[in-house]
Amino acid sequence: MRKFTLVNRGDENSQRICSEIKDKLIRAGFVMDQENPELIVYVGGDGTLLHAMHEWVDDLDHVYFTGIHTGTLGFSTDYTADEIDVFIEDISTKKAVIEEKRILQANCVNDTKELTIHALNEIRVENIVKTQEMDVYINDSYFETFRGNGMCISGQYGSTAYNRSIGGAVIYPGLDLLQMTEISGIHHRHARSLGAPLILNPDAKITFNHDDFAHALLCFDHLHIHLDGYHQIEVSSYSKTMKFAHFNKKTHLERLNALF
Ligand code: NAP
Ligand code: MN
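A: This is the predicted complex of the input protein with manganese (II) ion.
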């Protein structure tokens, strides 16, 4: 893992730390390679990782990610900005422990075209303008008709992000699964859906069907598209996983404790 590139949050502090890391890595014998890197060092926080993941989404099978924290939360990062020398020492002398994270995929279909997007944290169908009705299918079998603001699908990694804000379960690493969580579901005599987060196999396919997704958005990580004109959104797992390279041993409990 000698070839690296860097992605930073864009603020002055992250840019300064980014160039310090770059100089120190080159001095330690690493090679900057922006075309074909093996290691993506992200300097910022979890939002920076999302940007980096989307930039390298086609190359996920042969790149590894490691993060330095300069942002507000930095849940996924292994080092803080004042641990750069420890980071350089660790990366030069230690063998990385690789941790894979599932990437989600959504296929959106309308009468004339299909669009495929990917996400690390979550994929949401969300409509804050009007009640969104949609039929939910699991592995092509009808499950329920949902009415409300929308649905959020996440994997283990994204369980601590948006999913946690809407009452979804926080999932420990090592449990590879999908979670479907309602966003403001309507539950009364005439309209009823499960009303609880649903945990699914990682190879499950979840389909949302409706003839009208007007004003709804498909939100995926920090990105979104407008769903006007679409009638089907099919969510499943991407064939490639995202790989963290850990050079120190930060436990998940340490990360969770720092989260709230
Ligand atoms: P953002 O400011 O980049 O992210 C919002 C906050 O969520 C930041 O503090 C970020 O940490 C943290 N975060 C991101 N991924 C996380 C994860 N897997 N576990 C724990 N915390 C995480 O906002 P954005 O650019 O609009 O959206 C990016 C992501 O933010 C989305 O994928 C969504 O999950 C999350 N988000 C959550 C809510 C909510 O909970 N109500 C609302 C909007 C977006 P850093 O400060 O380190 O970047
Ligand atoms: Mn952020």
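The radius of gyration is 20 Å. Residues 55 and 205 are 25 Å apart (CA to CA).
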